[in-house]
Write a structure and sequence with these properties.
CATH superfamily of the largest domain: RimM
Oligomer: single chain
Radius of gyration: 21 Å
CATH topology of the largest domain: Elongation Factor Tu (Ef-tu), domain 3
CATH class of the largest domain: Mainly Beta
Number of domains: 2
Order of helices and strands: EEEEEHEEEEEEEHH
Helix content: 10-25%
Structural class: alpha+beta
Distance between the termini: 44 Å
Number of helices: 3
Strand content: 35-45%
């Protein structure tokens, strides 16, 4: 949920559903907070506003109640989800999957980020390394969430461009910044 909207506890949410008439009065939803906690909600009413959908939930009656929901991801219970066509996956099914580039294990999906381009970015961690890999059809070979496995064919060098800096690279970057600031 993006922000509070109004004075009676309403919140504006960005909707990532392609299902027409997805939301209904009295529908039960969950708010997944950034810390991983979950809160069950019941839709009292909702309406479109600009690029968002504004929700009024039962029991959320003030701006401070609504502020507690900002930053949460609104989720439809699994049993109420629409059946997806073959080849489509819910983003929540990707978290925890292990990503492979051909047969090489890259790491586990820790998060999914939107808004950086056409494809969402899989945030993949392996030890202390973190990679942002586009979840783009062009790179996908096989997605098997029930097996917690995503098989990809990544372009040569993609992981290296995305890799964390080595100690030597950090020192060189620091030295370059230091020289640049002394030249000003």
């Amino acid at each position: 949920m993006v922000k509070t909207q109004g004075r009676r506890g309403e919140v504006a949410a960005e909707v990532h559903s392609d299902v027409p008439d997805r939301f209904q009065k009295d529908m039960k939803l969950s708010a997944l907070a950034e810390d991983g906690s979950r809160r069950d909600l019941k839709v009292e009413e909702f309406w479109p506003h600009k690029q968002w959908l504004v929700f009024k939930f039962t029991g959320i009656d003030s701006i401070s109640d609504a502020e507690a929901l900002v930053g949460s991801e609104l989720q439809v219970p699994v049993e109420q989800r629409a059946q997806l066509d073959s080849g489509w996956n819910y983003v929540s099914e990707l978290a925890g999957c292990t990503v492979y580039d051909h047969e090489r294990e890259i790491g586990k999906v820790e998060d999914i980020r939107f808004g950086a381009g056409e494809a969402p970015l899989l945030v993949v961690k392996s030890g202390r390394a973190e990679y942002e890999i586009p979840f783009a059809e062009a790179y996908l070979k096989r997605v098997a969430p029930q097996e917690k496995r995503i098989e990809m064919s990544l372009p040569e060098g993609m992981l290296e461009v995305n890799a964390p800096l080595s100690a030597e690279e950090k020192q060189a970057q620091q030295a370059t910044r230091s020289r640049a600031s002394h030249e000003d």
